[in-house]
Amino acid sequence: MSLQPAEGTALEAIRRGDSRALEELYRLHAPRIYALLLRMLREAADAEEVLQETFVDVWRRAGEYSPSRGSIEAWLITIARSRAIDRIRARGARLRLVKQSEQLAPVDPEPSEPPDVHAQTRLRRALGALPPEQRRALELAYWEGLSQSEISRHTGDPLGTVKTRVRLGLQRLAELLAG
Amino acid sequence: MTHQEFLEQVDAYALGALDPEESRAVEAHLAAEGPHPECEAALARARNAVAALASDLRPVIPPPRVWDAIARSIGAAQVTPARRVPGWAMGLAAAAVLALLLGGGAQIREARRSAMQANAAAAECARDLADARIDVLRKDDALQLLVEPGTQLVSLKATAVAHGPLASTTGVVLFNARGRALFVGKSFASQTTQDYELWLIRDGKAVAAGLLPPGPDGKVLAEVRPELLAGARPAAFAVSLEKKGGETDAPKGPVFLTGALAPP
Fold it and tell me: Any residues with CB less than 8 A from the CB of B23 and at least 6 apart, and which?
């Protein structure tokens, strides 16, 4: 189920300066983005600030959204993650690495909330199908905000190898999620 | 940058894993080349995959102050009064209703209602944790558990014996079936001659699950020892006020908070 067309209309309204449209978009997407920011930043105060910055950014840049470059949710998450990564890098907390227990998602399915159960199950299966080194490279980039160069320095793997893992890992993930 | 070079970099770009100068090169390619279907399609695929990685997280409703701050920034009214529903919002509502109907009727509606209640409890818990004067690593750990898939929130309610300062205490247990449980409480008055004690109830018996020392702000964050969760799933949690050092077999003081764990 996609809300994309209605959200597209909401974005049009935001471009015209309708703050109620932004509020609706916020109510629809902020809970998941907030959870993402809590996980990335580990500080509620930072997560709140970045969430705020994200939606103020959406207000100012609604005209820049292009459906040909991804869904609205993907655009929102791109903005939020970009700001979160900036904050992580500013903190200098680059090498606070994920523990095994904090990986992207457990591979084994377990009960989750009804609205997202299909997406969750599909994601867990897809992640479980990735080679461990690709999965690990994605984890370090996704949750820790590490660049490929930093992943290479941390793991000791050649930069070219890391780049290949990131590229193939995300491409494979996209294929599995689309399949 | 050539199209081929762009295609090789786009996944790392979507992940935010490029170094700054590499990112600028990718953005320059997107800006300079204009619409290029293959590059744009690759960017859309990569961004959508990155977004999907967040689908495993349980949504957490942010505190109202976040929207208030956004509204101030954009010059909108902070508290939206009852209003005419604009056309685009009708679109969202219609899509949500359609999703609900396709989702399967009363059972799904009930599940969604429960999820919303859980979200509200999660949001309050996140706020309590954010404000708590506790070690930042422990706070981080609790926030991680809060958003982890499969974590249930058990709200503990005051019992009939909760009088005086005990009546204002509240508590939530973050229970994860993979073997972790954290207690988050607030308004716990400092005690000099007694201790607060957490209990888990299993097979009709109380099992001592640890003391709950409050911080200077009355907040409590305590973890249940994992070995206590290795057996059968607890049916409920409870908090009592006991002699210094706590009890080992069963609560003897007033049990002032209780909450049942929903079945799996």
Answer: B13
Contact B198, B237 (CB under 8 A): yes
Q: Which of B40, B41, B150 sits opposite A112 (nearest CB)?
A: B150
CB contact (8 A) between residue B16 and residue A167 = no
The answer to whether the CB of A119 falls within 8 A of the CB of B52 is yes
Closest by Cα among A54, A15, A23, A38 to B68:
A23
Decide: A143 and A101 in contact? Cβ < 8 Å: no
Q: Any idea of the CA torsion for A69, A73, A79, A85, to the nearest 10 degrees? A: -110
ipTM: 0.83
Whether residue A153 contacts residue A162, with contact meaning beta carbons closer than 8 Å, is answered with: no
Residues of chain B with C-beta less than 8 angstroms from the C-beta of A119:
52, 55-56
- Token representation of residue B174: 């973050």
Establish, for the pair of chains A and B, how many residue pairs have beta carbons separated by less than 8 Å.
255
Global confidence as pTM: 0.59
pLDDT tens digits, A15-58: 888 888 899 899 889 988 999 999 888 888 899 999 999 999 99
CATH number, domain B135-260, options 3.30.460, 2.20.110, 2.60.40, 3.90.1720: 2.60.40
How far is the alpha carbon of B26 from chain A, nearest alpha carbon, in Å?
Answer: 14
Cα B219 to Cα A27: distance, rounded to the nearest angstrom: 29
Domains of chain A and CATH, by start: 1-93 (1.10.1740.10), 96-179 (1.10.10.10)
Nearest by CB to B67, which of A5, A9, A23?
A23
Residue A103 gets the label, from left (phi > 0), alpha (psi -120 to 50) or beta, of beta
CB spacing of B103 vs A115 below 8 angstroms: yes
CA distance A164 to chain B (A): 9
Flag whether pLDDT at B83 surpasses 70: no
∠ CA B50-B52-B58, rounded to 5°: 120
Q: Which residues contact B97 (CB under 8 A, 6 or more apart)?
A: none
Render pLDDT for B166-189 as a digit per residue (tens, 0 to 9). Answer: 888 999 999 987 788 999 999 999
User: Which alpha helices (DSSP H) does A62-131 contain, by range?
Assistant: 72-91, 117-129
Helix axes A4-15, A19-41, angle to 10 degrees: 110
Kindly report the nearest CA distance between residue B99 and chain A, in angstroms: 6
pLDDT at position A114 over 50: no
Q: A167–B65: do the CB atoms touch at under 8 Å?
A: no
What's the confidence (pLDDT) of residue B107? 44
